[in-house]
Amino acid sequence: MAASKSSQNGARSRGHGSVRAGRGGASSSRARKPVPGKAPTPLRATLIVPIVVMVVLVVAAWSYYPVARLQYREQRHKTSLQAELDALKDRNSGLREQVARLKTPEGVEEVARESLGMVKQGENLYVVLDGDETATVPATAPQNPRASTPEPASWQKVLDAVFGFEE
């Protein structure tokens, strides 16, 4: 029995699966052939994973875009309406102050002198004109509240183009 064990051990030590330097073991520099039924090569796996990730990202972006577009449009519309409301509130407060001032005798006199060119009895009004200029009475024209809205930032212009927002 001892002889058979030694012959078996000898056969094992000289077999193809031994781990010896220079005989194709773990320290060998030769590439091994892929074994059927094993995992794919690393090159193939490195190509498949990014492609699958990109496809998933494109499908997610494609399905989320209409929702994001609607949300962006509504947010920008809300922002522009808020700016318009603030401008109208400022204008209303200015008009309230003007009405309060016009309810006083001094306010009426000021408007009559500036806008209408009226003078009190016994006063003289002198208007000095240069050669080509003509006298004009400054009129208070109603302001457009949308004209005072600030210009959007450059990144908002890009998002407006992406999501198709028009004011």
SS-based structural class?
mainly alpha
Query: Strand fraction band?
Result: under 5%
Query: Helical residue percent?
Result: 55-70%
Task: Give the uncertain stretches in residue-range form.
Answer: 1-7, 10-15, 17-22
Number of strands: 0
What integer value in Å does the Rg equal? 44 Å
Distance between the termini: 97 Å
Average per-residue pLDDT, rounded, comes to 75
Summarize the main sheet: none
Based on CA inertia axes, which overall geometry fits? Answer: rod-shaped
Determine the number of helices (DSSP H or I, runs of at least 4 residues): 4
Task: Explain this structure.
The longest helix is centred in the middle third of the chain and has 61 residues, at 42-102. The protein is 56% helix and 0% strand. Helix 2 (42-102) crosses helix 4. With 167 residues, the chain is mainly α. It has helices at residues 2-13, 42-102, 105-114, 154-163.
Task: Summarize this structure as a short list of keywords or feature phrases.
167 residues, disordered N terminus, 0% strand, single chain, mainly alpha, 4 helices
